[in-house]
Amino acid sequence: MSTEPRPMTAQDLEALRAELVELEGPRRREIAARIKTAREWGDLKENAEYHAAKEEQGHLETRILRLRDEVQHAVVVESASGSETVEFGCQVVFSDRASGREQRFRIVAARQAKPSEGLLSVASPLATALLGHRVGDVVSVSAPSGVRELVINEIT
After folding, report:
1. What is the pTM for the complete model shown?
2. At residue 35, does pLDDT exceed 60?
3. 54-101 pLDDT, tens per residue?
4. What is the pLDDT of residue 128?
């Protein structure tokens, strides 16, 4: 897992912590009880309930480790408003120089990213390229189709 800081809002961090408490407490106990019950049913080799519960336990423990890592590397950043440069939390409008196509994205925490809904992960290559730039700046971004030149039209 990466040791890089993960920007997020205070609300995002609190949601991570709440989910972690739920998974480490009630959810973990629930799965342990299911494993115990399934174990009492006899031969474990052919016990589908036991194997399903153990698999679910593995997924749960992986999720817990990922959440702990997120919390450990979280950096609380307040959403930008009225900024002159592209920053976490701001909305940026830019156009592709070649096609003229205009796009609008809000720079958000990786957990919230939904590009189809205009929410772009701060860790994405596009956001990384845009960060720190101002209206009118031309930003080069490497894309699968080649290098794209983007002009920043608006920051809100």
Report:
1. 0.68
2. yes
3. 999 999 999 999 999 999 998 888 765 667 899 988 999 999 998 999
4. 92
In the chain the domains, ranked by start, together with CATH numbers, are 6-76 (1.10.287.180), 91-155 (3.10.50.30)
Name the DSSP class of 108: E
* Structure tokens given for 51: 């194997």
Q: What percentage of the chain's residues is helix, strand, coil (to nearest 5)?
A: 45, 25, 30
3-state SS, 29-76, equals HHHHHHHHHHHCCCCCCCCHHHHHHHHHHHHHHHHHHHHHHHHHCEEE
Residue 123 and residue 8 in contact, taking contact as beta carbons nearer than 8 Å: no
Q: Specify the 3-state DSSP secondary structure of 47.
A: coil
CB atoms within 10 A of CB 98: 12
Residue given tokens 């209206």 in the structure block: 135
In one letter, which amino acid is 13?
L
Residue in 16, 156, 11 with CA at minimum distance from that of residue 78: 11
Closest among 103, 102, 101, 127 to 113, alpha carbons compared: 127
Under 8 Å between Cβ of 17 and 36:
no
Give CA 138 to chain center in angstroms: 27
Which two structure tokens, joined as six digits, stand for 143? Answer: 């894309």
